[in-house]
């Protein structure tokens, strides 16, 4: 239950940050990071249906709230959950710690950033794509460092 509350908080946090940055910069991928956090806490290799449903619902809400193409972010978030789950269980259980979580999260956030840029207004990006990506990645780094720090203190002592 607390993971679902964390996902709701992550979705709202990303939405509020995006409201503050509308038509200027991209918000950090807080919701995606929370989804990956939840998926990488799984101990058993089973299909993470609840995280697929959370990814689909959160993505649909984001679609309806921002870009207007229903299903696009739902599909992207669901694919990200699938990739994160697959990658996490390719790692031996003894090595499932914070560094692989950071690598998986960073790679999936990069893919999500590129997909968001494809559907953003080209006029906004004209001549400043580096700045837009840079600001988002600084914000992503802050959120990821915080989550990695929190994860290392909460979960690295426990066996996955």
TrEMBL record:
UniProt keyword terms in alphabetical order: Membrane, Transmembrane, Transmembrane helix
Entry superkingdom: Bacteria
TM helices/strands, residue ranges: 16-37, 72-89, 101-119, 125-150
Protein name (Swiss-Prot/TrEMBL): Rod shape-determining protein MreD
Organism of derivation: Pyramidobacter porci
């Amino acid at each position: 239950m607390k993971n679902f509350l964390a996902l709701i908080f992550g979705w709202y946090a990303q939405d509020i940050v995006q409201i503050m940055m509308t038509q200027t910069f991209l918000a950090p991928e807080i919701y995606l990071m929370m989804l990956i956090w939840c998926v990488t806490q799984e101990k058993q290799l089973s299909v993470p249906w609840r995280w697929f449903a959370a990814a689909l619902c959160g993505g649909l809400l984001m679609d309806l709230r921002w870009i207007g193409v229903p299903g696009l972010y739902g599909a992207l978030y669901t694919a990200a959950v699938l990739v994160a789950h697959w990658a996490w269980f390719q790692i031996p259980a003894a090595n499932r710690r914070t560094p692989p979580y950071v690598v998986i999260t960073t790679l999936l956030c990069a893919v999500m950033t590129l997909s968001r840029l494809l559907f953003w207004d080209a006029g906004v990006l004209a001549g400043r794509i580096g700045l837009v990506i840079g600001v988002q990645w600084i914000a992503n780094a802050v959120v990821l460092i915080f989550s990695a720090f929190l994860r290392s203190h909460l979960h690295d002592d426990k066996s996955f």
